[in-house]
Each structure stands twice: as C-alpha cells, then as structure tokens.
Amino acid sequence: MTIELCMGSSCSAKGAKWVLEEMKKALRENNLEDKVTLSGSLCLGLCSEPGANMKINGEVVTGVTRENFYEIFNEKIKSVLA
Q1: How far is CA 38 from each of CA 48, 53, rounded to the nearest angstrom?
Q2: What is the pTM of this model?
Q3: Start-to-end Cα distance in the chain
Q4: SS (H, E, C) the chain
Q5: CB-CB contact of 57 with 21 (8 Å)
C-alpha cells in the first residue's frame, strides 16, 4: 500500500505534521510498517477542504483531522491490510 501525505503549506497549517506522526505511530502499533510505503507529497490541489489531505493507493482522502484520523486509518488502511 502506498500512502502520500500532502505536506503543502495549507495542509501543514491544518495538521499534516500531526497526521504524519500519528500515521507512523499507528502503522508501528499495528505491525503494518512493512506493508506500507509512506511518503510526503506536494500540494494535491484540494486546499479548500478542512484538515489535511492524502492519497491511499491513488485514492484522494480529504479532511483528515485529529477527530477522524483513526476512523480513516481503520477503514482505509488497517481493514485492507489486516
């Protein structure tokens, strides 16, 4: 699985750095580090969306926040790789 986190200025201001650290932690805690290629990307062009943006296997996921991170992680990453 490939996960690209937008690290553009808008997403950074909306918590992308927190999402990156939390993603690393969640992957580690679920023993998924070897199954995921995690990288940063330039702007995905969805700056008007709330929260940070990312791509999971090419699918754009918008609005990632502290409130919904684990819901997105469990649905789009953990359940697919488990």
Answers
A1: 24, 14
A2: 0.92
A3: 12
A4: CEEEEECCHHHHHCCHHHHHHHHHHHHHHCCCHHHCEEEEECCCCCCCCCCEEEEECCEEEEEECCCCHHHHHHHHHHHHHC
A5: no
Are the beta carbons of 49 and 62 closer than 8 angstroms? yes
Question: CB count, 10 Å around CB of 19?
Answer: 25
Return per-residue pLDDT of the chain as tens, 82 residues: 999 999 999 999 999 999 999 999 999 999 999 999 999 999 988 888 889 999 999 999 999 999 999 999 999 999 999 7
Beta bridge partners of 54: 5, 61
